[in-house]
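Morning. Coffee machine broken again, so started the prediction first thing and wrote up yesterday's gels while waiting. Chain of 338 residues, entered below exactly as on the submission form.
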Amino acid sequence: MSDGLLRVGILGVGRMGADHAERIATRINGARLVAVSDPATERAGELAATFAGVRAVDDGLELIADDEVDAVVVASPGFAHEEQVLACLEAAKPVLCEKPLTLDSASSLRLVEMEAKGARPLVQVGFMRRFDPEYAELKRLLDSGSLGRTLMVHNTHRNKDTLPGFVSDMIVRDSLVHEVDVTRWLFGEEIAQIHVMAPTPTSVADEGVLDPQIAIFTMAGGGIVTNEVFVNTGIGYEVRCEAVAERGNATIGLGSGPLLRQDNSAGTRIPEDFRDRFATAYDLEIQAWVDATRRGEVVGPTTWDGYAAAVVCTAGVESLTTGRPVNVELAPRPTFAV
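Came back before lunch.
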């Protein structure tokens, strides 16, 4: 580290990467944005030019190898994650990889095994909901035992719209993956089975896209989780979670701001997209990553969490295709070399 600050490079400067660039450059303590890279080199150059002292690097792998980069944020498309995270591991550089870790369970397991060959963990996976204050409070409430055993969870995940090419299996791998991780986290156990179903699709979805989708998880301990994922609602970005326990229930995500009653109607503001709804969660996530990296640690979701989510989503795509429930089977968890 130079001048005590963690020098960070970002791979991928689309919506998420550009958002992280602004975050690290202006709001995160203990870090300094030094480089960005994207196959769209002109876009990367324009973003770099908005911040003092930030370089645009044409080749992402060169950014990872750069001696002036201490740690890397991978915000590129999922298909590029395996190669880029592997390069970070080979360079022994800490990395925050946006979800999904990879697009399939086999490649995610390869990263788990590669990381385990080292002396310590280096990867945090970007499941930011664990850092959201509402989700964190729900987790604390359930863990306290005051409500008794958690029996059911109901998740709702709705987007206003999607980019062209967002096909049916991406609803599982890129959207439902958040519910997969947060469910494992809230219950503190693995998902044993997944069943994904699709009703008649909305007419505004692209031809052949099964949207919305309903997924049912059966937990290892017997709990049941229902999930609605609807990515072309045309309304806004809504994420809600209700946990039902033996002696009570708790719901989060009921709205942003006050409930306004006016002109024979009642309502609250619906965020435009995920960057709006989870802005605080992203700030807390990146700050926690920077602080932990400077201490030589990893906090938050690990490569194992990314792998477990990939296994569930791979099974979910199979279930969506076949119409049948699919059991989830994880490989043995490796331990780190000493």
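The chain has a mean pLDDT of 94. Going to sketch it on the whiteboard this afternoon.
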